[in-house]
Amino acid sequence: MAMIELEDVWKRFRVRRALVEAVCGVTLHIEKGEMFGFLGPNGAGKTTTLRILATLLSLDQGLACVAGYDLARQSERVRACIGYVGQSGSTGYVATGREHMMLQARVYGMSKSAAQQRMEELAEQLEMASFLDRPVRTYSGGQRRRLDLALGIVHRPQVLFLDEPSLGLDPQSRARLWEEVRKLHATGTTIFLTTHYLEEADILCDRLAIIDGGKIVAEGTPELLKQQIAGDVVTFSLASFTGTSSQARQLLRTQPFVRDIQGDEQQLQVYVEHGEKALVVLLQSLLLVIVALPLGVHINLAGFGLTLVLMLLLGICVSSCSYALALALKDENALSSLLNTFTLPVFLLSGITLPLTLAPPILRTLAELNPFAYAVNAARTLFTGDLASGAVSEGFLIIGVLAVIALIWVTRSFRKAAI
């Protein structure tokens, strides 16, 4: 059930000879028990919308309902089931907090005994007992704001409107007020909160809408809006790795989840959709840059991508041959011995550990018969950016043919095993 409904609501003010549109076609639906935030800069239309909902202003056009009552036709019933805490409060300076609360409770039709009992409950809940009997003029900002909140909920409203409740409070008082609002929300009260503090909206609200120039420009959960607008920001310090910023930018921009990259040679700010998921991939990419540059290797992104394709073909060859041998031998120990016998020589003769130019002539001759040596040579060439080299086409041709042969072999082996 929607506790608050606004359909195409407009509000205009005449300032001298000009007509100012403060609220322009606002439509909102807020469910029962929801804490809804109304976020925007000063003058955006937040307070005007709130004052319309609290029956303090009439709307010029549209439909508005609170707790099932039409604002235009049933304003008295609306007032009976809402609480309102304005920006500047509504307390005088001479009366005590207790006198203010008694007056508010009696105005809402509570008996004297019921009002007294409710005051004691709120004094304990909001920790007001120590100053409740003092004149309001002696209250601190945080104490006065707690009294304002107590006045707004003394009659146990179904809906509570809070207009920038933490405005002007110090950080400690603001955190205390947030805690009280959370407790109130936990009891099932529907809360409509206006603020221009991003942190406040993010921490407190189930959903929020952003208003600017009297119009709703965005609506959703805080998490959804953060992802739509900017996402998360992951900051990397490159102060100890001079000269890495440019290549790091190039490599990170290839990731699909990266929205934007800002910064300088000392620091990079990477804007991503989900920071907790993207962090590992970002670190891997930066590690590649940091390790490569001291070795004099300049990464070519196209070559890097082709290297990954080449490694994929190589993996197909190795895994397919291993499966085919396993199906043929049907003996785990025999397979292990065979792989150990051939893997190390093939690995050493591929040139992956040391350049083959440093090896004796007999090993260089044997390496020419090793197909993996061509793959390693092609990968080295691609990584440094020489895409047109004959070593690249030679490596892809040999490994590609071997991958096809290995796939045919393992497919036939699986078919024989299934018969």
Structure description:
By secondary structure, this protein is an alpha/beta fold. It folds into 3 domains: 2-223, 3-Layer(aba) Sandwich (Rossmann fold), CATH 3.40.50.300; 230-295, Alpha-Beta Plaits, CATH 3.30.70; 301-418, no CATH class. Helix content is 49%, strand content 21%. The chain has 15 helices and 13 strands. It has helices at residues 46-53, 75-80, 97-107, 112-125, 141-153, 171-186, 198-204, 222-229, 245-253, 275-292, 301-329, 332-348, 361-368, 371-383, 390-418; strands at residues 2-15, 18-31, 35-39, 61-66, 69-70, 82-85, 159-163, 190-195, 207-212, 215-220, 232-237, 258-263, 267-272. It has a 6-stranded mixed beta sheet, sandwiched between helices. Helix 9 packs across helix 10 and helix 11 packs antiparallel against helix 14 (371-383). The protein is elongated and about 105 Å long. The chain starts with a strand and ends with a helix. 32% of the residues are buried. Residues 293-298 have low confidence and may be disordered.
